[in-house]
Design goal:
This protein is α/β, with parallel strands linked by helices and 229 residues long. It contains 9 helices and 9 strands. It binds pyridoxal-5'-phosphate.
């Protein structure tokens, strides 16, 4: 059985190969380890092999694991759907939030971010899979939302995130990633200064990197298949 350290090394190698193939610098691509459903001890193992950024989808898991691992200066990312009664917890615990879909939630995170903390890094989640996906803002609403968020003082607008609908044919999946990159370029042409394209998971990180991903979110390839969800 390969260890978590072996799996992390293999994922780093995949990122490097994909980056070289696309003529991007592998140093421009960061690895977020997605640890939903896994116990804190597995995260500690990944930390011991050098991994520093972890992504959680559920507020209760973020809460329990950040408490269990309080001795490690982990960079926590919240990547799930954000319920309004969880914004306080998320704004106090996470360094990043990837799934911003509306101004109302962003304003709550902004208001609740504590003054002593650096601004919360945020990405807007865009739905580029149409009817096949419930989450994310529609493409035509994304630039407007980005402009609104750029004025919130305790948030730092970093970029865009997408999750292609599962089981897309490869060329459609590639088209989704390319669309997100074009939107990113449009936003920057409007002066938004984004630096993060959060796209790519275990099965599609190569396609995402070919399209210009700067942050891949990887769970299964590091921890193995999840029992639940
Ligand atoms: C679960 C999840 C991932 C990781 O997916 P894997 O296929 O396990 O790599 C990435 N991003 C989000 C938003 C997720 O929910």
């Amino acid at each position: 059985m390969p260890t978590i350290c072996d799996n992390l090394a293999e994922v780093h190698a995949r990122i490097e190969r994909a980056a070289h193939g696309a003529r991007h610098s592998p140093h421009a691509i960061s690895l977020l380890t997605v640890s939903k459903t896994w116990p804190a001890e597995r995260l500690r193992e990944a930390w011991q092999c050098g991994q520093r950024a972890f992504g959680e989808n559920y507020a209760h898991e973020l809460q329990s694991k950040s408490a269990a691992l309080a001795d490690l200066p982990i960079e926590w990312h919240f990547i799930g759907h954000i319920q309004s009664n969880k914004t306080r917890l998320i704004s106090r615990t996470a360094a990043w939030v990837h799934g911003i879909e509306c101004l109302r939630i962003a304003e709550r995170l902004d208001r609740q971010r504590e003054n002593g903390l650096p601004p919360l890094n945020v990405c807007v989640q865009v739905n580029l899979s149409g009817e096949a996906s419930k989450s994310g803002v529609p493409e035509e609403a994304a630039l407007g939302l980005l402009q609104q968020l750029s004025g919130l003082p305790h948030l730092r607008l970093r970029g865009l995130m997408t999750i292609p609908a599962p089981d897309l044919p490869q060329d459609t999946q590639q088209a989704v990633f390319d669309s997100l990159r074009r939107l990113f370029e449009q936003a920057n042409a409007q002066g938004l200064n984004l630096d993060t394209l959060s796209m790519g998971m275990s099965h599609d990180l190569e396609a995402a990197i070919a399209a210009g991903s700067t942050l891949v979110r990887i769970g299964t390839a590091i921890f193995g298949p999840r029992q639940s969800s």
